[in-house]
Design goal:
single chain; about 120 residues; alpha/beta; Rossmann fold; 5-stranded parallel sheet; 5 helices
Length: about 120
């Protein structure tokens, strides 16, 4: 079973994504902080990480993505940034830290499912 890690500090956003992905045959993992996301990523090695940018704590989504892509254990994980920050500079920064894809909130649940199906 393919594993997807949802990383967002907002419970309602994680629930919405989880409900959206419930139609697929995925194991859904959740994290509400960057630190928690890195711990889960290293322990479980999910196939995809859906990663919010703006999170409280010491690590934002850019920091998490940068750490995942630098770690030999996790560098192959496909990272999709999910964020309300949709300015060109934000997208470029996401690409600079090696995010594989970028979805701007609010996003179409069907587009997200289509993207995940294409990846897996």
């Amino acid at each position: 079973m393919k594993k997807i890690l949802i990383v967002d500090d907002e419970d309602k956003v994680r629930r919405l994504i989880k409900v959206t992905l419930a139609i697929g045959d995925f194991e859904i993992l959740e994290a509400s902080t960057g630190e928690e996301a890195l711990k889960i990523a290293r322990e479980v090695i999910p196939d995809i990480i859906l990663l919010d940018i703006m999170m409280p704590g010491d690590l934002d989504g850019y920091d998490v993505c940068r750490s995942i892509k630098k770690d030999p254990v996790t560098k192959e994980i496909y990272v999709i940034m999910l964020t309300a920050k949709g300015q060109k500079a934000d997208i470029e920064k996401g690409k600079a830290v090696c995010a594989n894809d970028y979805f701007i909130k609010p996003f179409s649940p069907m587009e997200l499912i289509k993207k995940i199906d294409n990846i897996l």
